[in-house]
Amino acid sequence: MKVSVYCSGSITKGVSDRGKLTWSDTERTEVAKGAAPHEVVFLNPDDPITDPGNTLGQFGRDMYQVMIATAVVVDARERRGLGVGVEMAAAAAFGTPIVVVAPPNSKYRADVLEYRGVTVRDYVHPHVAALSAAVVDDFLRAGEALAELVAPLAAGGAPAADDVPGWLAGAISEYRHNVLHADVPMLEALRQLDRIPG
Known about the structure:
- With about 200 residues, this protein is an alpha/beta fold.
- It has one domain: Rossmann fold (3-Layer(aba) Sandwich), CATH 3.40.50.450.
- The protein has seven helices and seven strands.
- It is globular.
- It starts with a strand and ends in a 6-residue tail after the last helix.
- The mean pLDDT is about 90.
């Protein structure tokens, strides 16, 4: 079965971001290996956009990818920003499953945490815990979790709906009508997924 993964996490925007952990071929290879025998098509928010000045269209592209993805895999190895939180909230609104890669004793997970005056064991950040279908240690395990999540689809279950919440509708419409036609990487991903837009 062919599945799609939206690669959520930091992208390198400039020189100051070079030290960040970001999605690369290494992470994608591990997810694909873990998801075997399923074929994984990756939806990458860091692909070049034709009109960087169209911020609504750029936001719409990310939200469109989250909407059509089989699952969102979040790189939470390090502290992440506003964009990742919005992507997770949008995925939850679309019904797109979320798998979070958060190694033990990293920013969003801890074996033991002193928190609000109490000791919490096996802590997972509340937003991560509430929104995620799975929280895993690494990208190989993210692929394995993806394979488990798509098992009902392979057996004929229904995929996530393409219903667009009102707070995302304008951005996705801007992307679909004014950007998508020239977005070569996204058009190629849609071809691979047999989802050519009409």
